[in-house]
Write a structure and sequence with these properties.
CATH architecture of the domain at 551-658: Alpha Horseshoe
CATH class of the domain at 551-658: Mainly Alpha
CATH topology of the domain at 551-658: Serine Threonine Protein Phosphatase 5, Tetratricopeptide repeat
Number of strands: 0
Helix content: over 70%
Largest sheet: none
Radius of gyration: 34 Å
Shape: elongated
Structural class: mainly alpha
Strand content: under 5%
């Protein structure tokens, strides 16, 4: 290049035309060769600006910065180009550092530097810096430019300043599709789906035709909000516009229907996509997995593999939870092999899914090995996976220890972290640790979240502090059915029958949605308190008043309640009329009542049914023998013991801690 071709030496115009081709080649060595030529020939600043751009787009941001730092006469384009380069490479903190440096040197901000800086503030959720950038845009009289305003608008949305974002949008004289799409997409990404739907409707009223970018955002909203009518309406629009079979639109549509659980529609859209890519398959695999259709998710994954298309990390993250839920360890291990072969091992999301899969498939040691790998940079999800894994495998102390280590290493617990670790506290009755976690949740601003409140009500009750459960319950502003059920269960477990019945009555008065768990808790309270008439009334109201079919556990509860009062005729009548086959819990409750009231005849019937259902449980034979002994029927008691021996069973020896 030094002597050119045929003696013709490239000038600045030649180089500026060459740079776009270098960007496409992404050949850093070739860039450095051109860079050397530029240094020797001493070109003007626009060539150096071009070099900064080329290096940045080739992924060598360090070389771009070297060129920038070596420039003598930087202009506004130089600053804008290096900032854009850092944004292109995801180095957002460096952009804001350059912004401060530029301000300190009284540099003039152009549209590129404002857009780059506001994008960085957006990604870092740095509202104060974003406002500072906005002020600079106003000072330089470029805030009304469509591209600049759109970038600032997105920044405000991502930083949670919806009012300011909307104000900027309203002030735009000419709102193009980019502005509409940016605000709609920003609202979706920042968790304002209702506002996004409203804005989309407004856009249609303005006679603007949404493009594929806008449609993708709306489909995402509808999936999030379960806005079936809006989603289907927008689907009709995409059909009329003829873009429903485009791969991006089709993928988004398939994902929306799959997330709703409308799998026939999702499959119809999927099959219409002309040129399916791996995202098309991922949309359905993830949808099936998220809706508990684990077998379908796994079958679709197998179809993908047979089609010859290579799965990506998103595919892996979609199928591993399906393996975990369905306990398909062998398939999970096969997927692990594919991960190693495909080079996805270093992907944090993939490793988190692997940890979760192994823990839920009862291979905790495998999960721990992956978690403790030295080169693994753990995020909050990694810690949540191992904490829930410990709890799943009843390693409660280890779960608490992992939660403490997570905080020690500087990671802030999320709501999922709190919800995952609290069962460990409850099982250990570790009240001081539970109160410390409660304080942490308050410090993090989680106290107003209903799900968090529910787990603390449950924790305090299981740690024996119903008074604290009650206080927390009374202070909660946003209660759901789970909140009431949890408090009800707390009263039931601790024998506060009157409080449980009163709470149940309040639920009915306040029109709280009752479910089968509600009735199980209040029936359990009635059983412990001996409230036979109240219990019977509540049990029969399940079907009569609330159209909730009693399950086996409800029948077991009412049988136990009636049995404690010796109402055997009512029990037999109930069992005879049951629409379900009585299980061991129901016959066990009857056997317990027979033991209490020395009813050896019914006890034998209950035992025969128990032996039929659980033939290898020695406790049933021992129970019958004791009932006969209480009634003075020593021959029958001995016969019951002989049946135990004949069945080849042994009584489990009792143990005392005294």
């Amino acid at each position: 290049m030094q002597n050119g071709v045929n003696g013709i030496v490239p000038n600045s115009v030649t180089l500026l035309n060459l740079f776009p081709a270098l960007c496409k080649l992404e050949d850093v060595k070739l860039c450095k060769s051109v860079h050397g030529f530029v240094i020797r020939r001493k070109f003007r600043s626009e060539v150096y600006n071009g070099l900064i751009d080329v290096y940045a787009k080739c992924g060598s941001i360090e070389d771009a910065r070297t060129v920038f730092d070596g420039m003598r006469g930087r202009d506004d384009v130089s600053w804008g180009t290096i900032m854009a380069g850092y944004v292109h490479n995801g180095c957002f903190s460096e952009v804001l550092e350059l912004f401060d440096e530029m301000k300190g040197k009284n540099g003039v901000m152009n549209k590129v530097s404002v857009v780059s800086s506001s994008t960085a503030a957006s990604e870092l959720r740095d509202l104060e810096k974003g406002k500072e950038i906005h002020a600079c845009a106003i000072q330089n009289d470029i805030d009304s430019d469509g591209v600049v305003a759109t970038s600032l608008m997105t920044m405000y949305v991502k930083c949670g300043e919806l009012g300011m974002a909307t104000e900027l949008f309203r002030e735009l004289e000419e709102k193009d599709l980019v502005a509409w799409s940016a605000l709609i997409a920003g609202l979706v990404q920042s968790g304002f789906p209702k506002e996004a739907v409203s804005l989309f409707r407004e856009m249609l009223q303005e006679k603007l035709k949404p493009n594929s970018v806008t449609l993708l955002s709306v489909f995402s909203i509808c999936a999030e909000l379960s806005q079936h009518r809006v989603g289907k309406s927008v689907h009709c629009y995409s059909l009329k516009a003829g873009i429903d079979s485009e791969v991006a639109t089709g993928n988004s549509l398939a994902s929306m229907y799959a997330k709703w659980g409308f799998f026939s529609q999702a499959l119809t859209v999927f099959h219409k996509i002309r040129h399916k890519n791996v995202v098309s398959w991922n949309s359905l695999i993830n949808g099936y997995a998220q809706n508990g259709k684990t077998q379908q998710a796994i079958e679709l994954y197998r179809e993908l593999m047979l089609s010859g298309m290579k799965p990506d990390s998103e595919t892996i993250v979609g199928v591993l939870p399906a393996c975990a839920i369905s306990r398909q360890l062998y398939l999970g291990m096969c997927v692990h092999g594919l991960i190693i072969k495909s080079g996805f091992v270093s992907d944090c999301h993939v490793k988190n899914a692997l940890i979760d899969m192994y823990a839920k498939c009862d291979r905790l040691s495998f999960a721990e090995t992956l978690f403790n790998e030295l080169d693994f940079t753990k995020d909050e999800v990694s810690w949540n996976a191992i904490i829930s894994g410990y709890v799943h495998n009843s390693c409660f102390r280890e779960a608490l220890s992992a939660f403490c280590r997570m905080k020690y290493e500087g990671l802030k617990p999320s709501t999922i972290s709190i919800v995952s670790v609290i069962p460990a506290v409850s099982h250990l009755s570790a009240l001081p640790q539970g109160m410390a976690i409660h304080a942490c949740a308050v410090q993090m601003g989680f106290q107003s979240i209903t799900r968090i409140g529910n787990v603390f009500i449950d924790m305090y009750a299981k740690c024996g502090r119903v008074d604290l459960s009650e206080r927390y319950f009374d202070e909660m502003e946003n209660k759901d059915t789970v909140t009431w059920n949890t408090m009800l269960a707390g009263y039931a477990v601790h024998g506060h029958t009157a409080r449980a019945v009163t709470l149940f009555s309040n639920m009915r008065k306040k029109n709280v949605s009752l479910d089968s768990v509600t009735f199980l808790s209040v029936l359990s309270a009635c059983r412990h308190g001996g409230l036979v008439e109240e219990g019977k009334k509540i049990f029969y109201s399940m079907n009569d008043d609330f159209h909730i079919e009693p399950k086996l556990e409800h029948y077991a509860c009412i049988v136990d309640l009636l049995g404690r009062s010796g109402l055997f005729s009512e029990i037999l009548d109930l069992i005879e009329k049951m629409p379900l086959e009585p299980d061991a819990a129901i016959w066990g409750a009857l056997l317990g009542a027979c033991r209490m009231h020395s009813n050896s005849d019914l006890a034998e019937m209950a035992l025969n049914n128990l032996v039929r259902l659980e033939p290898v449980n020695p406790a049933h034979y021992v129970g019958l023998s004791n009932i006969y002994a209480q009634s003075g029927k020593w021959v029958e008691a001995k016969t019951a013991r002989l049946k135990l021996t004949d069945a080849g069973l042994k009584k489990i020896p009792g143990r005392s801690w005294i």
